[in-house]
Amino acid sequence: LLIIFLSYFFVLLMFLCDLIQLSITTYNVVYMAFRQAVVTTPFSLVNQIVFFVSGAALWSYVCTLGVVAVNRVVCVAFPIQFKALFTTSLSRRLIAHCVGLGTIISSPHLHPCCRLLSFPEWHTTAYYPFHTWYRYLDFVVSSLCALTIAVCYSLMFFVMRTSAK
Hints:
mainly alpha; transmembrane
């Protein structure tokens, strides 16, 4: 069964990240429905672990999107070398690195310097303290991933357009 899914490592990781995000969102909705019965402080460890798991899944997903973008560029621009470059073992290592990077980037949520607090009345979250360094790390990593994806897909479309002529 594992042999069948070897070429779908990246899709399976994105599926798992989406499933975790759905579970966390369901937890937040249930919390909103029953928060009068169960009053917890936003600084509780449970809330921080929820944000940590949610953030780790989100960052793993974003990292995987970047890896998939590079994978597509290599597939289109260098089709002969593609199988040699993206082997099963490399794909497994890339998946492990994406999960590890997502966990590392999300780990400051467990430290008091970089709390992410939920404000259910406004359906939003905010950093606490507001001017934490983690805001800038969040912005830089998000921007780098978005830039990588944009450059990779632009290059892929450029290669496809020039090869069609």
